[in-house]
Every structure is written in C-alpha cells, then in structure tokens.
Amino acid sequence: MSKVYLGLGTNLGDKKQNMLRAIEAIKEKIGKVVSLSSFYETAPWGFDSENSFLNAAACVETAFPPLEVLHLTQDIEKAMGRSKKSVKGIYSDRVIDIDLLLYDNIVFNSPELVLPHPLMTERAFVMTPLSEIAGGLLHPVFRKTISELKQSASGKGVF
C-alpha cells in the first residue's frame, strides 16, 4: 500500500458538509483515510471572491498508482458538482478541490500530473494542514521536512 497526501478545499455551499462528503468518497473510492487534519478557514488565493475557503489535508493508504488516484479524485470532484478545473493559474469558486500533494516519496512529472505538487510549498493553506498530519515527512525534492517548509509558506495563501 502507498500513502498519498491530498489537499482539500471548498468555498461554496455548506463547506463542512462538502469536506465530509469528499472524505467519505475518498474512503469509498481511493482507500483508507489514515489521518485527517483539522479544517482551516482561509482567504481565497489567486483570485478575488467573497467566499472564504475551508481547507484540510488527508493521508490515504491506497493500492492505486498516482495517475489512477488523480482520475478518481477528479471523478469525486465532478460527482460533487465541480464543472471545471483551474487552468493556467485562473482560479474560481468551487464546491470541492482535491489536489495530490505527495505520493510516497515519488517524484513524477507527466503532462497530467506533477508530484510533489509544484505549488504546495508556496501555499500556507496547504502547508499548515499538511504539517499537522505529516510534519516530520521529508519532501522528496527539497529534502526538508514539511514542518520546515511550512515556515517558508507562512504569509502566502494567508489565513
């Protein structure tokens, strides 16, 4: 079994319920959720919106390879009502967003998926919940712990 770390975010509708629904769908489709961070209310990042976000991180044990996990998370997003993904840095409000942050200690680069997530260390709304559940985990590219990298993300993607 592999461990995949996911970042979750929502800023539309009943945000807590959206998170809980997404987590249940992850359990059903991807694997066992072995740890889940607290939910953090954060300001939008990369675009203007009147809707704050609820963000979290989860660690999931899975038998699926990275691209299959990506497709399964996209299926969950669509089933929950997400109609489009962010493209080329253009972000918008969303019912749910599920990002693959880390998959074991794999470094992977394809047109569809880059692991570790290339922007995760620039986003406090990702690094804060991730450090809660995986603070001692070593980033496979930067060779620093998630807690160490969280310090450099402070103030970016502010709460």
TrEMBL record:
InterPro entries: Hppk, Hppk_sf. Its EC number is 2.7.6.3. The keyword ATP-binding applies. Residues 5-134 form the 7,8-dihydro-6-hydroxymethylpterin-pyrophosphokinase domain. It comes from the Bacteria. GO terms for molecular function: 2-amino-4-hydroxy-6-hydroxymethyldihydropteridine diphosphokinase activity; ATP binding; kinase activity. GO terms for biological process: folic acid biosynthetic process. Keywords: ATP-binding, Folate biosynthesis, Kinase, Nucleotide-binding, Transferase. Pathway: Cofactor biosynthesis; tetrahydrofolate biosynthesis; 2-amino-4-hydroxy-6-hydroxymethyl-7,8-dihydropteridine diphosphate from 7,8-dihydroneopterin triphosphate: step 4/4. PANTHER family: 2-AMINO-4-HYDROXY-6-HYDROXYMETHYLDIHYDROPTERIDINE PYROPHOSPHOKINASE (PTHR43071:SF1). Belongs to the HPPK family. Catalyzes the transfer of pyrophosphate from adenosine triphosphate (ATP) to 6-hydroxymethyl-7,8-dihydropterin, an enzymatic step in folate biosynthesis pathway. This is 2-amino-4-hydroxy-6-hydroxymethyldihydropteridine pyrophosphokinase. It comes from Candidatus Phocaeicola excrementipullorum. The gene is folK.
